Amino acid sequence: MSEHEFEPVRGLPEPLPPGETILWQGGPRWTVLARQAFHATPIAIYFGVLLAWRALHAAQSGESWSQAAVPMALLALLAAVALGLLLLLAWFAGSTAMYTITTRRVVMRIGIVLTVSYNLPFRAIEAAGLRGNRDGTGNISLVLTPDNKIAWLNLWPHVRPWRVKRPEPVLRAIPDAARVADILAKAVAAALAPAAIATSRSAAPRETVIETRPLAAAH
Predict the structure, then answer these.
(1) Which helix (H) or strand (E) covers residue 2, if one does?
(2) Within the chain, where are the H helices?
(3) 43 with 36: CB under 8 angstroms?
(4) At 164, is the secondary structure helix, strand, or coil?
(5) Could you state, in order of their start, the residue ranges of all structural domains in the chain?
(6) 12-49 pLDDT tens trace
(7) Strand pairing class (216-217; 125-132)
(8) What is the predicted pLDDT for the residue at 91?
(9) 21-28+98-217 maps to CATH 2.30.29
(10) What average pLDDT does the segment 70-80 reach?
C-alpha cells in the first residue's frame, strides 16, 4: 500500500470545492526526465569516452588485454552503477509525481521520500511557457507572481533550470504537451477573464486589471 492511496482524490491533498473540476491529470515520462533533469545521456557518453580512452591507452602502451581488463571492468562497473542510480531516481521522481489542472488552479504533487503538494491558483501564475520535444513531450513552466515563491530545491527536478533567484515550477516531461498547454491557457483565460472585467470596471483603490497571458514558447 502506498501513501498515495490515502488521497481523497488522486493527485490532490483534499477534495475539490464545489464548482471546481479537474480538466487534466498526468505525470512526467520518466525516460525523458532521466535525459533532461538527470542528464543520463551526457553522463553515459562521458563514461563511454573514458572506456574508449582506456582501451586506446592500453593499445598504445603495449598492455595486454588481460592487464587492461581489470581497470576497464571496474570503470564499466562504476558507469553501470552511476547510470543505474540516475535511472532509478528518474523513475521514482516520475512515478511519484502527479500534475493536475483544474478550472481554478494547478496542483503539483511531487517528492520521492517526502511527498508535498503545491497548490498554484491561477491568480498566482503571472505567465506560462511551453517547450516541446520532437516526441510530443514537453515542459510547461509557470512564472509565479513576485509575492509567490517556492524554494528551488523544494521543487527540483520539477523546476526550470537556472531560475534559482525566482524559481519557476515546471510540469516536466509530460506527454502531449501542446494539448495540455492549450487546456491550461483556456482554463486560465476562462477563470480570470470575469475577474479582469469586474476589476477594470471598479474604481476601488489598490485594484488592478488582471491580464491573462497566452502560453508562449519558452527558450
Answers:
(1) none
(2) 30-36, 40-61, 65-96, 152-155, 177-201
(3) no
(4) coil
(5) 21-28+98-217, 33-93
(6) 888 899 999 999 999 999 999 999 999 999 999 999 99
(7) parallel
(8) 96
(9) yes
(10) 89
